[in-house]
Amino acid sequence: MATLKDVAKLANVSLATASRVLNYDQNISVADETKKRIFEAARKLDYKTVKQRNKNVEKRLKFGLIHWYSQEQEIEDPYYYTIRKGVEDECSIKKIELTTIFRNDLEFMEDKLSVLDGFIAIGKFSKEEVYELSMYSSNIVFIDFSPNEKIYDSVVIDFDRAMQEVMEYLFNLGHRKIGFIGGLECIGKKKEFLEDPRKIAYKRFVKDKGIYNAEDIYIGKFAAEDGYKLMKEAIAKGELPTAFFVASDTMATGAIRALYESDIKVPDDVSIIGFNDISTAKYLVPPLSTVKVYTEFMGRTAVSLLLERVKENRKIPKKVIIPTDLIIRESCKKIG
After folding, report:
1. Structural domain containing residue 43
2. Same domain assignment for residues 175 and 96
3. Number of C-alpha atoms within 13 angstroms, CB side, residue 166?
């Protein structure tokens, strides 16, 4: 790349003269012929002044990542961690400055929200929280949640289709007593409870098949500890289902541990299917059959949607549904 020294040499003038002419210094007195020679030298060498270079540099975008979990909650359930990683990796590739704000930090970060070009919100939010975010920017993409598809962009998965595939698989293996272990989530300052769409789909399936039993549903938190406790509860109750759908691999890990301690073999005695396909699922004993959710891809997709909003001024909202895959390993068995 040509330097100011190269221009001055070609135009046969001093560095100071070349600099002042190219920067349109009104106080310099030089002949028009000299100015012409300097500008011609700069053109031939494709030299740009600092001002010209800065003018052509595109402003670096600043996005905010709003997490509905605290850092402690994220450690317990890696599902949202991998979504966050996808967002962070894509922003790094796109040279986008990213500010990550966890739920427990949100009230202390309000001064930073106003300088951001848009937000990616991971998780579930109340109507009041969605409204508060919209006060800072209309450029918002939600991941794993779609508060209003006529207004906001969102990236979600098709829970109904995923659950239909899971339940049909277990049913076709001969299971007629299928249990459900899941977690309870709440949103907003009022702690309003959200019903898991997986639980809704599960209940619809077993009712349609005439095998519904409310006693086979166990609800706690999305943590390994609760998976363990809930399975212990099911074992103590007796008449254990021959198969369980567990709404997260983390919970499934705890559930399998509880079965092992009671000398109940997976899959010989009880079949287990998890959800998410976390990195450790294939290393469990036995390797866990589960629903693979492309969490990092969800994060990357959200960044692309937000870029469309900010750079292309897209106004029509998009709702992107990411497909899932049922991963068959060794934790389920045909019976009957």
Report:
1. 4-56
2. no
3. 35
